[in-house]
Amino acid sequence: MPSDIRNSVLLSTFYNGKKKMKVIFHKGNIVWDNEKPPSEQYTLPVENIISIQHNYLRSTHPSENRQVDPNCFTIHYSERGKYAKWVYKNISFKHPDALQISSWVKTLQSHLQNLRKRPKHLLLFVNPFGGKRNAMQIYEKYGKHLFNIAGIEVTVNVSQRKDQIKDYIVNHNLDMFDSVACVGGDGTLSELFNGLVLRECRMRGVDADDINQNLPKPKIPVGIIPGGSTDTIAYCIHGTTDPTTAVLHIIFGDSLGLDLVSVYDEHNLLHLYASVLSYGYLGDVAYHSDQYRWMGPRRYDYSGFKKLVRNKGYQGEIAIYTESAGIEELICTENCEKCEISKKRNCDKLGCKWQTLSGKFFMVSGANISCACSRSPKGIAPYSHLGDGTVHLVLVKHTSILNNLRLLLRLSSADSSVEDLPFVETFSAREFCFRAIEGHSRWNCDGEIQHQTNIRCKV
Ligand SMILES: Nc1ncnc2c1ncn2[C@@H]1O[C@H](COP(=O)(O)OP(=O)(O)OP(=O)(O)O)[C@@H](O)[C@H]1O
What we know:
Blueprint: H1 3-6, E1 10-16, E2 19-26, E3 29-34, E4 42-45, E5 49-56, E6 68-80, E7 86-94, H2 98-113, E8 121-126, H3 135-149, E9 153-158, H4 164-171, E10 179-184, H5 186-204, E11 222-226, H6 232-238, H7 243-251, E12 261-264, E13 269-273, E14 276-280, H8 281-289, H9 299-310, E15 314-322, H10 337-345, E16 353-367, E17 391-397, H11 401-411, E18 424-429, E19 431-438, E20 443-445, E21 448-450, E22 455-458
Parallel strand pairs: 8-9, 8-10, 10-11
Antiparallel strand pairs: 1-2, 2-3, 3-4, 5-6, 6-7, 12-13, 12-22, 14-16, 14-20, 15-16, 15-19, 16-17, 17-18, 19-22, 20-21
Helix pairs in contact: 3-7, 4-5, 8-9
The chain binds adenosine-5'-triphosphate (ATP).
The site of adenosine-5'-triphosphate (ATP) has 21 residues, from α5.
Domain DAGKc: 117-267
GO molecular function, one term: ceramide kinase activity
Protein name: DAGKc domain-containing protein
């Protein structure tokens, strides 16, 4: 940022409605307060501004062109609310001297232009099929207006079939976009990042099916506006499933490094996932519940109960590539230190060893994130990190139906986690392999079914 812009200071007295307010802009903050007591001082960092706009004069006739009001401007901004939510706000300032107004607008706009990570051309995929089938309405209600205020050009692409988003990304030129996002659930986001990684492999000549190759990271930032049933990934990334918060994070170009786990069979890459891969109970629920999509999110309760009663356990063998015996009880938070350190270490695998276990399992899960959501406030792996290069394996042994119920109650509890149950074992792994021995189930991979039972996974 040029130093004359960075060091600029503005000081004026404006009208906000009938109130007279002192407004100062200095060192990247706008501070306003009533000119007379009582004081209601508010500090707004420039990073939280969505846009600065001139107001328009009221036109007397609908056919008239709208005319800029030279004496008034509006600051559109966002403020952190309760429970990790961000809310949209605005404030207008009036001044009889038009020069004062234009000087403020110009200075603030040049500050905003220097915040380079913000998107300008967004490709937004909308899945009309997931969740309550209202993704388009979510975009219209929470996204359209805010993207418009932020001056972001949005190209909306409504998916017509499963895997269309993935195919579109692999096969189309995306050069005119600086960000991609979707309105949907975990499955929709999964199509998006699977497409981006495959696209990157194709462009760099990387054989995606070769497990010994490190899959390239897509360069383009990816956003998600929750519009699915569980919205686990959006919840874990944003701390809420509030669509406005998601839209604001996209507008501000907020980013964090999210690990992706690649799943292979003996020959091919099957899928990449970001939340959880689960065999046994959750695999059965995902498979069974898909035929009851018309029930909406309640299909999980219905199928969940049926599959709980009928579960007889699945015999399998699991090999885990791990460097530590236990799990560090550290929750992944905003600007997480553990994820930062791992990023710098570049996920080296020094000190990792293979360890093999076999037995009869109620469920085997590889959680890449905590998988917290409104139905499971702590998630299946509360100490899993978004970007530390490991996946948390949660192995639930086959015991009694009563213990299975205890597990499900723990999963839906906000106070206790599943890790300390005596029939649950957890590991932090960089890779793992699973082989089904008896009683075959399926894998639930970010909510999608994988029928191959014998798999190898790598973060
Ligand atoms: N037009 C479409 N018709 C049918 N399926 C679609 C369409 N567009 C996308 N899909 C598929 O819909 C499936 C469900 O979408 P999604 O996962 O977003 O919703 P959900 O399962 O309700 O939510 P969650 O995964 O958060 O529980 C995904 O597998 C996606 O690939």
